[in-house]
Amino acid sequence: MFLTISTTGTPDRPATDLGFLLHKHPGKAQAFPTSHGTAHVLYPEATPERCTAALLLEVDPVALVRKGRGKGRGGAPDGALAQYVNDRPYAASSLLAVALAAVFRSALKGQCAARPELAERARPLRVEIPALPARGGAELVHRLFAPLGWTEVVAEPVPLDERFPEWGDSRYVRLVLEGELRLADALRQLYVLLPVLDDAKHYWVAPDEVDKLLRAGDGWLAGHPEHRRITERYLARRRSLTEDAMGRLELVRLAEADDSEVEALDNAVDDTQDTADRPVPLAVRRREAVLGALRAAGARRVLDLGCGQGQLVQALLRDSAFTEIVGVDVSVRALTVAARRLRLDRMGEHLGSRVKLMQGSLTYTDKRLAGYDAAVLSEVIEHLDLPRLPALEYAVLGAARPRTVIVTTPNVEYNVRWESLPAGHVRHGDHRFEWTREEFRAWAAAAAGRHGYTVRFEAVGEDDPEVGPPTQMAVFHRDTDTDTGTDTDRTGTTRTTRTTGTTGTTHTDTDTDTASAGPKEGDPA
After folding, report:
1. pLDDT of 6-64, one tens digit each?
2. What does residue 160 show for φ and ψ, rounded to 5 degrees?
3. How far, in Å, CA of 222 to CA of 199, rounded?
4. Angle between helices 137-145 and 183-198 (to 10 degrees)
């Protein structure tokens, strides 16, 4: 499938400014991988008087079928009849819209770092799409694009076969748009209206599509005479999502009419009402503490080791700062529940590309876990028999070696505050041990010293002056600039540790020891 964007210029405002706006050099042909093929950007012409940028999307039909399992993920209805032979590689659709947003992301946002003033300036544009599916015909194309500032909208029907005119026209049109608009506005309109005209999407429409629609439709969708039809088609006629979007669009329209902010109108519900006296569950506080530590560390690619049913993975997905999230658990059943919780089979393409669940044992070294910014072991270590803890320690701190490792575990001293917990019992039947604060700090400090990390400690939950918090958290950090990669298991070198200050930060000094070599890659730790 193919799309071109052209502009004209003058000596003062050359047409080649288009390269700055698109963040793509006119003198280069570039290729970008997508989930269903390859997107190419090239410039057929680039002079001060006229410049044309072309986006060519090569779709892999096999990849489209393999990644389109289930209804709603296989593309247009044609794909159900002929999975490998259909119009998807050739006709502009949601595939092209997704590629457009990925390749021209900064331009879509109206950002131009090199020349910021260009992004705010309207310029003469000509957009051409040779084959655009239009369910509703040329008339609908005019109704959708004409109110958006285009001075010329051409939707020329493509005949089924030029040799047999009696067969009539196909449902495809050749689209030409001309007008003076900001490039960002033009790209946002295309991002929304291409799948609307095709009336299909190649991925499952998840709730986050409402936010995508409102972001791309900011400034034009709320006042569009066909905003209801656009919303319904973009959201695949999912009633709950459509009503949510329509309600939010109505607030935008009212705010514009009242010359006020949306938040000033949508204030009927006090978010703090009736909640001040409700205790926040410990599990929620624990996730918030972990998320705060990850953000403070600047982590973007995160491992949730022992992810269980996926609660933390779900919380990480809600924050776009975390670009890759991997949940690991030894239990297939837990991973199945996590996949169901996350709705992986119905997750949108962009969101789905950020998350992965995989089976693995944390007491074995695993090459797949190397190279991540951070790893989280939230309420995990207490489920291991103590003799197996050194294996987990080496697999994470010694082999995977993320820059930051966060470990939370119950504080056994706090158990006396649980009225429903009999004396001497652990909090969960599967807990093999529960540590005091002194025991946890001693283990963490020693582990940090063995593997070249520093460690600090935080309280999670109410910090009781007598018995401490219900959950204790250790945050290990490795400075990549000074890390030597030595550890007890591999080199026979150990480090003595000392803890200073009230933060509990452990510093390490190298000393020699005769510790035995650790496990090899892929062997039991």
Report:
1. 999 998 999 999 999 999 999 999 999 887 789 999 999 999 999 999 999 998 777 66
2. -60, -45
3. 20
4. 150
